[in-house]
Amino acid sequence: MARSHHSFKLRKSRHYFSVFAVFVVAILIALVIIGETGRVPMGTILSGLGLSLYRLVLAYAISLIIAVIIAVSTSGTKFGNSLIPIFDLLQNLPSFALIPLFVYLFGYTDQMAIIFAATSILWPILFYMIHALNTARKDWNDAATIFGATGWKRLWFYSLPVSFPALVTGSIVGVSVGWEAIIGVEIIGLSSGIGVFLNGAIGADKQAFAAGLGLLLFSVLLINRLVWMPLLKRTELYGE
Q1: What is the mean pLDDT of the segment spanning 55-65?
Q2: If you average pLDDT over every residue of the chain, what do you get?
Q3: pLDDT at 155 over 90
Q4: Which letter, b or e, does each residue of 123-156 get, where b requires 16 or more Cβ atoms within 10 Å of its Cβ?
C-alpha cells in the first residue's frame, strides 16, 4: 500500500513538472516573439532584468545577514525586547520618503539602490525570526544549553533550525517588497534596470513594454517555483 502511494505521488510529481516545463517554454516563446516584433531587442530587456535581479539578490543577502545577526543576538533578552518598539517604528517609516536621504548619502548609484532595497527587505525577515525565537519551545532551548550549544554551534544547531520556517516566510515577504523598492528607485532616478526600461517603453513601444513586464512576472514565477516552494516544503520538516 505504501509503495502504491509513493508511486502515485511520484507520477503526480512528474506530471506536474511536465506541465510546468511546457508552460515555461510556451511563455518564453511568446515573450521572445512579442519582444522581437517590437523596436527594442530582446537582449536589452534581458540585460535590464538581469541588472535588477543582481541588485535584488545583493540587497537580500545583506538584509538576511543583518537580520540573522540581530535576531539571534537580541531575542529573548531584555535589551532585545526594548529594541522591538524601535524596530517597529523604523519598519513603519514610509520607505520612499527616505529616498532623498539615501541619494544624499550615496547618490543615484547601484550602491544606493541595493542599500535602499536592503533596508526594506530587512524588516519582515527580522520580525518573523524574532517572533520564532521568542516563542520557541522552552525545552528545546534548555536542551541546547544542556548540551553546550554556544556560539556558532548554537546558531547552527538551534537558532537557525528553530527559526528556519520564519526565515523562509519572512524572505518571501521581504523579496516581494525588495522588487518594489528596486524597480521604484530605478524608475525615479537610475539609468538602467528593468524599471527604467518599462518606464521608457510604456509610451514608446507597447510590445516591448509587454515583453518586459511579462519577463519580469515570469522571473518572479520561476523564483517562487524553483526557490521558495521547495524551501516552504522543507519547512514542514521543522514542524514535526
Answers
A1: 96
A2: 79
A3: no
A4: bbbbbbbbbbbbebeeeebeebeeeebeeeebbe
| Grid coordinates belonging to 207 | 510590445
Looking at per-residue pLDDT, the higher value among 45 and 115 belongs to 115
State the amino acid at position 56 in one-letter form.
L
What total number of domains does the chain contain?
Answer: 1
Smallest Cα–Cα separation from 178: which of 47, 51, 58, 45?
58
What residue has cell string 532595497? Answer: 117
CA distance 39 to 211: 11
Q: Is pLDDT at 123 greater than 90 in this prediction?
A: yes
pTM, whole model, 2 decimals?
0.81
- Which pairs count as long-range contacts for 100-103, CB under 8 Å and 24+ apart, including other chains? 103/189
- By the 10 Å C-beta count (0-12 exposed, 13-18 middle, 19+ buried), 171 is classed as buried
Of residues 215, 184, 221, the one with CA closest to residue 33: 215
The residue segments making up the domain with residue 189 are 2-239
- What pLDDT, on a 0 to 100 scale, did the predictor assign at position 45? 84
Helix, strand, coil shares of the chain, percent, nearest 5, are: 90, 0, 10
CATH assignment at residue 31: 1.10.3720.10
User: Which parts of the chain are beta strand (E)?
Assistant: none
CA 153 – CA 135 distance, rounded (Å): 20
Per DSSP, the three-state class of 157 is helix
Interior angle at CA 53, CA 49 and CA 178, nearest 5: 120
Give the count of alpha carbons within 13 A of 148, CB side only: 0
Residues 158/141, Cβ–Cβ less than 8 Å: yes
CA nearest to 50, candidates 207, 215, 178: 215
pLDDT top residue among 46 and 25: 46
